[in-house]
Amino acid sequence: MIRVVLPAQLRTIIHTEQEVELDIVGQPTQRSVIDALEARYPALQGTIRDPATQKRRPFVRFFACENDLSHESPDQPLPDAVAGGTEPLFIVGAMAGG
Amino acid sequence: MSGVRVLVGTRKGAFVLTSDARRQTWDVDGPLFAGWEIYHVKGSPADPDRLYASQSTGWFGQLIQRSDDGGTTWETVGNQFPYDGVPGTHQWYDGTPHPWEFARVWHLEPSLTDPDTVLAGVEDAALFRSTDAGASWHELSGLRCHGSGPSWQPGAGGMCLHTVIVDPTNAQRIFVAISAAGVFRSDDGGETWLPANRGLRSEGIPDEDAEVGHCVHRLAMHPSRPDVLYMQKHWDVMRSDDAGDSWQEISGDLPTDFGFAIEVHAHEPDTVYVVPIQSDSEHFPPDGKLRVYRSRTGGHDWEPLTNGLPQAHCYVNVLRDAMAVDSLDACGVYFGTTGGQVYASPDAGDTWAPIVRDLPSVLSLEVQTLP
Fold it and tell me: Which domains does chain B carry?
């Protein structure tokens, strides 16, 4: 079971204040987690990844275990603590503005 | 009893304001989609319970929301706006070629007759249509590809297609306006397009009366007289009596002819409203006085409407899609400001009062007249 913490604006879209729990078959990666997330919540399609390129949107970041995973390959296995559900994967809107 | 529903898009969510036909007391619902920029919310003329909303942020892109119950509940629908074919380039601010890139939906224009059909004007400028209630969107690429597209340049707010008007007597005729390309007209339902900018003069472009390149801010039409169009251009208030084939200036005695919004009275095709703004670098009303100007003669002669509007120290702006009218017997006029005020006049502009004063900056405002 994977735990995912979404930013407030995306929680608004799927009408939840809670972190999301996903079951992933096989070794979880950024790609497989977002695939599962979009499958459960189609409204999130295009909000985390560019719909045309499937690349991470420029102002979206992926954090876990106090590390920034944003620039890792989307097919890189997520840390064991995330895969085991003891730590969440944070999907974050990058800080911007005044 | 009939009433009105005012749909307000702001920088940080949408608000729905409702009143009975007296328009004296208001219920305020919102924010909907809190934290998101709502560029536009508009209801279907064919089914007032069907609403469409454009929701976006720079972080998470574009969403389209649809309501089938007048805004009580919403569901996300299709948010893919793929340009047709290889999009090519337009000009960037510095004159270099820049790839066409989808940024957001500025304006949603539901069909006059079919609640499931809606047009979307987007940035970078293009027109899309959905015939399945927003589930999927297809570009009407004859506009972007008609020939002048590679020469279009963005205005300061981006290269946006911000105005879409369908002729109520002829669904094949569509007008759009693009900043900063100008007006385009289709007479075949959006398949092919021609520029409709003859008579416009813009000092900020190399050829002042060029076929395209004018920063048109907004168009307005009265449904009973669809060949007459009114325009607020970057500078100049203009009028066409031949469906955009030619334009004449009607700025007349306005204190400044810069502005964004323009609207027509619901029952008087020659009564027009604008909100003069000081200049393109000073986006606030002249002298700190928020004044709507009304012409009852189709232009040239304008009167300031000030009763109930702040007449000192007011430095807000009224954006292009933030003014609308209702169609009750005494026409109501409404506008929202970048300071978060929404003003209403239940008597065609003679008197004004704020419905709300402290919303986020208002991007758009539409009005539904309910049975």
Answer: 51-357 (2.130.10.10)
Nearest to B35 among A8, A45, A48 (CB): A8
- H/E stretch holding A9: helix A8-14
Which residue segments constitute the domains of chain A, with CATH numbers given? 2-93 (3.10.20.30)
Name the residue among B201, B336, B335 with its Cα closest to residue B257: B201
How many angstroms from the chain centroid is the CA of residue B281?
Answer: 21
The Cα-based distances of B74 to B44, B54, B295 in angstroms read: 15, 12, 39
Give the CA angle between residues B145, B53, B4 to the nearest 5°.
125
Any A CB within 8 A of B33 CB: yes
- Give the model confidence (pLDDT) of B254-293 as tens digits: 999 999 999 999 999 999 999 999 999 999 999 999 999 9
Measured between beta carbons, which residues in chain B are less than 8 angstroms from residue A59?
58-59
Q: Which pair of tokens denotes residue B202?
A: 């813009």
Q: Predicted ipTM?
A: 0.90
